Amino acid sequence: MEQRKIAFIGGGNMARSLISGLINAGHPAHLIHVTDLDQDKLTELTEQFGIQTGMDNALAAQQADVLVLAVKPQYMAEMLTALTATLGDYQHKLVISIAAGISVARLKELLGGHGNIVRTMPNTPALIGLGLTGLFAAPNVSLADCDFAEQMLQAVGKTVWVGDEAGINSVIAASGSAPAYFFLFMQFIAEEAERMGFSAEQARLLVQQTALGSAQMVVDNPHLDLETLRAQVTSKGGTTAEAIRSFEEQGLGRLVSQAMQAAVQRAEEMEQLF
To answer: pTM for the whole thing?
Structure first.
């Protein structure tokens, strides 16, 4: 990974995870600068990582090769309007957005026409280094800048590029929102386990260990598709087959499809809000 100077505007949880991943991957701490309005948060980041921190967005951006936009979407317009008014020209800086719901076109507008932008969508497991991030590059972003953005996000997990920006909303539906789908399903299993007589602690252990082991089996068997993996643990006429039959009769597949399309629709609506 190139040793570029990176400025994070916003020092929240996702920024912290990216910084941790970058430091662990060998990126020099002195090349990372974070700004935030919370001085306590900045002090913690300095103490933990030995990076430069401050409250002056313009100074950090001016000195950086790469600008990472890590503020909440509802504050992005105000922040970038002020930053652009101060800087005027972003020169050839690479701008990476990790904010949900803000299109490349909107970012370009807020950046005063600067179009060297990579929009990303990391999911929450990135907070523990096991994330999946979707990436979309605006037209004319160089291969070197795309490579840098990809390597930076790989500091917190795996990455997938999408060919058009609408694909980011599909990433949201299939990955960004998906941890909550799994948590909900795990919740339902645990609640039923408790009704069967297990304690809350036992029910959670049953669910979390099964989920962990199942996910690891998927990782360890990349040559097997998910349908095959499911079939391999489903004996004909057995208990698992009966449970699967019940799921299918109730239209589980249709419900999942509808839920994911609802997530896409909401993502499209959110792009009009900011």
So the answer is: 0.93
